[in-house]
């Protein structure tokens, strides 16, 4: 059983009966679920994950004090704290988890202010361009078990994908980084005898390529330690996860380096094919830099289009 399943069962077997018995009038204003930081919120947890911050628990999310006052919120906190200390063989933690509260009673506004910088989840263009992808991923992952008020559902739906012009800006920047690091600087660093710099170029190429693949899937890339796991499950270009892993985990001796140069070009070709399939580029070549500028040129909003091409990466 993974953490999401444990959380859901804990809610329906322990939390929901408590709410219906003690707070029936509050139910229309409550949301319950599990999302945010932690591998369990992505469904990626395993035995290793259980060494910290793993426990039966869920979020109870409240609207502002004009709807649910502090006294009621405090009463709900006490009731949540009195839920069983152990469930299905897993103990609830007596201390706050690393990184802050992941379970319990929180205000909706506080949760989304912390994650994306907007209490109501409505982002400006500047915020869409600059909020880290992993933060958007954590604001929209997991599962809602109940949303009587509907506010959390509305916010999550509004944050579920980038506005198209923002997606294109981010794509353009990452394509340019792929071109510079992979198609140009990797081989150049090797010719200089700078094998460490060459491997940094590979790392930059792989990082930009992963962002590109998530953007082409219209998904947010999670925190780096879960990026490969999430990428393997994507419907488009998931096969590149294996390529990027090989690039990162192999040396730069001459024979290996030649193979890596070919792998970089093959990955670039796959990305270019998907760009063309989605109608995102008009360039016809294997040079990712030219595709980067073609993607940028098609951005409809002039204010976004005219920003530096690397603004959003």
Computed CA radius of gyration, to the nearest angstrom: 23 Å
- β-strand number: 6
Number of alpha- plus pi-helical segments: 14
Average residue-wise pLDDT:
94
Order of helices and strands: HEHEHEEEHHHEHHHHHHHH
Structural class: alpha+beta
Tell me what the CATH architecture of the largest domain is: 2-Layer Sandwich
Explain what this protein looks like in three dimensions:
This protein folds into 2 domains: 3-158, Beta Polymerase, domain 2, CATH 3.30.460; 164-305. Helix 8 (164-191) packs antiparallel against helix 9 (195-216), helix 8 packs antiparallel against helix 13 (288-297) and helix 11 packs antiparallel against helix 12. It has helices spanning 3-22, 39-42, 70-81, 108-116, 125-130, 133-140, 151-158, 164-191, 195-216, 227-231, 240-249, 254-277, 288-297, 302-305, and strands at 31-34, 59-62, 86-87, 90-91, 104-107, 143-147. Strand 3 and strand 4 (90-91) form a beta hairpin. The longest helix is centred in the middle third of the chain and has 28 residues, at 164-191. A 4-stranded mixed sheet has the order 5-2-1-6, with helices on both faces. Strands 3-4 form a two-stranded antiparallel ribbon. It is built from 14 helices and 6 strands. The protein is an alpha+beta fold and 313 residues long.
Brief synopsis:
The chain is of the alpha+beta class.
Explain the layout of strands and helices:
Blueprint: H1 3-22, E1 31-34, H2 39-42, E2 59-62, H3 70-81, E3 86-87, E4 90-91, E5 104-107, H4 108-116, H5 125-130, H6 133-140, E6 143-147, H7 151-158, H8 164-191, H9 195-216, H10 227-231, H11 240-249, H12 254-277, H13 288-297, H14 302-305
